[in-house]
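=== RUN LOG ===
request id: a7f3
mode: sequence -> structure
chains: 1
length: 186
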Amino acid sequence: MMYYVAAFLVLNFILTFVFSPQYAVELYGTKHEIFAIAGNYVVTWEQLLYQLTKTVKYAAVVPLGMLFLLTNPSEFAASLNGMKVNYKAAYAVSLTLRYFPDMVRDYNDIALAQQSRGLDLSKKEKIGTRIKNVVNICIPLIFSTLTRIEIITNAMDLRGFGKYKKRTWYSRKKFSKADYGCIIFC
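=== RESULT ===
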């Protein structure tokens, strides 16, 4: 996981400079050159400060985001509810996190089905044709998503979800001292 985060940070650092080499100069209103590379590509102290700040921000947020997505959705929802978040909102978060792998699987299944019918997604095709072909995959994906949402909504209604102000959680765990310390620290 850390290799992916490090690769993301390095790539982000490089692409920020490639696509906006003078953004920090505009942002801070001063320009202290270190050395010039070519044309508009001048390394300045302002740009280094901006990119260092941006890199540290992403280094702090991206690993936490990845851990957020790798947790068990039911346990996460129960924990949210334990922190006094409304159980309906906690359950919505749980359903959203649980749905991501299903959506990826459905996209791959639809893509394979479309490719068996002759849809070409390879780099040999022109970019416009590839975009059109991806849209041909996304439309059935959207319809299958809407169908799944309708099924889940009906199942929740039939089971009386939202009837009571509180609910119990199958996967609820008691908070430890470390959990409370982490919450206070955050």
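=== NOTES ===
Residues 127-158 form the longest helix (32 residues).
The longest strand covers residues 33-38.
=== END ===
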